[in-house]
């Protein structure tokens, strides 16, 4: 029987404001890809839809509640499942509606950037791929 590598499902939010800026999250230094900027999000748990997982992850990470009706899938990126870290597939959604006060609840930090500024940020490889899909 052939070996079938498995992939972890991850969701991320490209949250934008009315000034042409996008929210990026800087990972805490002690975590994998620490210090790099990414679209916020996290793993899809068993029994969750990607949209429900994204709403939960953003609330846990940033303290805001995404408006489910504003979520739009815009692309995905995946790494090579045999490349040491295991397989990851990230589904990226845009989100224009949210409520609450932003807070970095897991020790990282966040900021708003234009697409040109995001291009200059140090990002994990899959987030760099997602940026290309989002901003082209």
Mean pLDDT figure: 91
Structural class comes to alpha+beta
Report the helical percentage. Answer: 10-25%
Termini separation comes to: 41 Å
Question: For the largest beta sheet, what order do the strands appear in spatially?
Answer: 4-1-7-6
Q: Count the beta strands.
A: 9
Let me know the largest β-sheet. Answer: 4 strands, mixed
**What global shape is seen?**
globular
Instruction: Kindly provide the name of the CATH class.
Output: Alpha Beta
Q: What is CATH's topology name?
A: Nucleoside Triphosphate Pyrophosphohydrolase
CATH H level, superfamily name: Nucleoside Triphosphate Pyrophosphohydrolase
Query: What order do the SSEs take from the amino end to the carboxyl end, as H and E?
Result: EEEEHEEEEEHH
- The structural domain count equals 1
Strand content: 25-35%
Radius of gyration: 15 Å
| CATH A-level architecture | Alpha-Beta Complex
Contiguous low-pLDDT stretches (5 residues minimum) are none
User: If helices are DSSP runs of H or I spanning 4 or more residues, what is the number of helices?
Assistant: 3
What is the topology?
Layout lengths: L6 E9 L6 E5 L10 E2 L2 E3 L6 H13 L2 E2 L5 E7 L8 E9 L2 E2 L9 E5 L1 H6 L4 H11 L1
Describe the structure.
With 136 residues, the chain is an alpha+beta fold. It has a single domain, classed as Nucleoside Triphosphate Pyrophosphohydrolase, CATH 3.90.79. The chain is built from 3 helices and 9 strands. A 4-stranded mixed beta sheet has the order 4-1-7-6, sandwiched between helices. Strands 3-2-9 form a 3-stranded antiparallel beta sheet. β6 and β7 form a beta hairpin. It is globular, with a radius of gyration of 15 Å. The N and C termini lie far apart (41 Å).
